[in-house]
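Troubleshooting: if your tokenizer reports a length mismatch, compare your output against this known-good record of 343 residues.
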Amino acid sequence: MHLEALSIFCDVVRHQSFSRGAMANSVSQSAASQAIRQIEKRLNTQLIDRSKRPWQLTAEGRLFFKGCQEIVERYHELEKSVQQRQHPSGYTVRLASIYSVHLHDLSHYIEQFQSSVPGASVDLEYIHPDQVYERVLNDQSDLGLISFANPGRELTAIPWQNQTMVVACLPGHRFTQLASEKIGLHPRSLDRESFVTFDRGLPVRREIDRYLRRREVNVRVVAEFDNIENIKQAVEDGAGTAILPEPTLQQEVQRKTLVTMPLRLVDDEPPFVRPLSIIHRRKRRLNPAVTEFIELLRAARSSTNAGARRNSPMARGVTRRSEETIASRPRKTETAVPPGVVT
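Known-good structure output:
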């Protein structure tokens, strides 16, 4: 069984498309289809159920794909090792990230990485959280940056940053008088408040709901979005308040279009944070350049998290201003919902 046929099969499955899988291997669609049929004939089993629209892998196909990934991947790594003698230069690290990770920060890390590993590069793509998992699992991305990671058995999650969650509102909002500069805003102050938040399907929304529920706080959800940029815009437009990761609000605080305040800690509870993680496929042999990039991000982790502790509710005032700016590529979708109570 030729390696080329295995590579075609893997790419067809990854792209969920015969034509795109064929294109990735510089062959015609009919040639790709024929290669997969030859594999099925050799194995005497059906790998792809073509009777369904869209087509699906059979149980045997899923098993074969998992093994094929490792074989093809290992061969390519061995080939590169021989050619480059394990030198990481020339490799492109494929990085998928959720929208709200700072482009400013990532650009800094990428520049640092390219300086320390001459010839290497990073291909960064901002996508929806679900797509981050999919791309890493399907080997379309080497690494993913995700919040509230749920890696399961197929992925490894490496802790990266803990970002403090804060209340965001308009300047002059009554919360600015209620909040203490030393201990922050009591969570119960949010009860019955108009609230802008994330779509229900997102992990960050579940964590915010859980945080409010534990404190018996019921907010009136007036709008839901799938990205932070739209939430901030809605708060600026006067729709309500929001709970967001503090680093994502630095630009608005600097412009004085929004005010942030910490959430008061109750009963010695830990602060409410958004954990960011680096994910990769568990059994994948990482290219040296990928390993180098992970180490670079992890090296910055301790100083970033130490900074978060210094800026905890007990250590700073109501607002925080920074010279950093935020740039991202938000999805422009919106889910309109009638006002209700989060349960």
